[in-house]
Design brief:
The protein has five helices and seven strands. By secondary structure, the chain is of the alpha+beta class. Strand 4 and strand 5 form a beta hairpin. It is rod-shaped, with a radius of gyration of 37 Å.
Length: 222
């Protein structure tokens, strides 16, 4: 054989995959069949595959899910010309249907216009007052405070209106950690309190409705 190795020709040999294929092989059994006719085929089967070598055909009988790389060395001999050509080829096969990619998250829905409310449209006013503040970027976090207290009061997690008022103050202060921001929002809060006082007294459901109106306004601050 060494006397025949006068020339080494490297080329790519086309091949077919036999089996139930949808961009990938669904599972064993399947076969890899090299096209054309060569003299020798040396298959290297990776772990995860069990296969039977049948010349230019590799019959895979068992296959673990995932990607596998099958290597094959193909030898063609031209006896008349005393010439040998060799091709080393790697065949990547994925076993198992891949799940559809997760859909992208839908784009966030921009807040709509603040709806009117029965408290002199305090939601609309709260949005307007907050929009002029230097620290208006905090409006979203403060909206969560007002909405959260409203929800907890409605569910009974906050026992009384007095406790709800105290929770609003405490949670707002936890958002407004900078003195300048707190002073600016105190002016906003004074205006909201004026509307509150105008409609006081309110029962529990009324307070929930008022707080949610303010939260809705803050959510729309741009």
């Amino acid at each position: 054989m060494n006397a025949l190795l006068t020339m080494l020709l490297l080329s790519q040999v086309p091949y077919d995959i036999e089996g139930e294929v949808v961009q990938v092989v669904k599972g064993a059994p399947f076969a890899v069949v090299m096209q054309g006719d060569a003299d020798l085929y040396f298959w290297q089967v990776p772990k995860g595959l069990t296969a039977i070598e049948q010349g230019k055909r590799l019959q895979v009988t068992k296959a673990a899910a995932g990607e596998h790389k099958i290597r094959v060395k193909i030898i063609s001999i031209d006896w008349a010309a005393k010439k040998v050509s060799q091709t080393d080829q790697v065949i990547a096969i994925r076993v198992g249907v891949q799940p559809d990619p997760e859909p992208d998250d839908p784009p966030p829905v921009p807040p709509g216009p603040v709806p009117p409310d029965r408290f002199d449209n305090v939601g609309q006013q709260a949005a307007q007052w907050a929009a002029s503040l230097k620290s208006k970027a905090l409006a979203g976090k403060l909206a969560q405070t007002w909405q959260g207290v409203a929800d907890e009061l409605e569910r009974g997690q906050i026992a009384s209106i007095g406790q709800a008022v105290a929770a609003i103050k405490e949670r707002n202060n936890s958002v407004l950690t900078q003195q300048a921001d707190r002073a600016e929002w105190q002016g906003w809060g004074a205006k909201v309190n004026q509307v509150w006082s105008k409609h006081w007294p309110l029962d529990r459901s009324g307070v929930v409705e008022f707080y949610r109106a303010v939260a809705g306004g803050l959510q729309n601050v741009k």
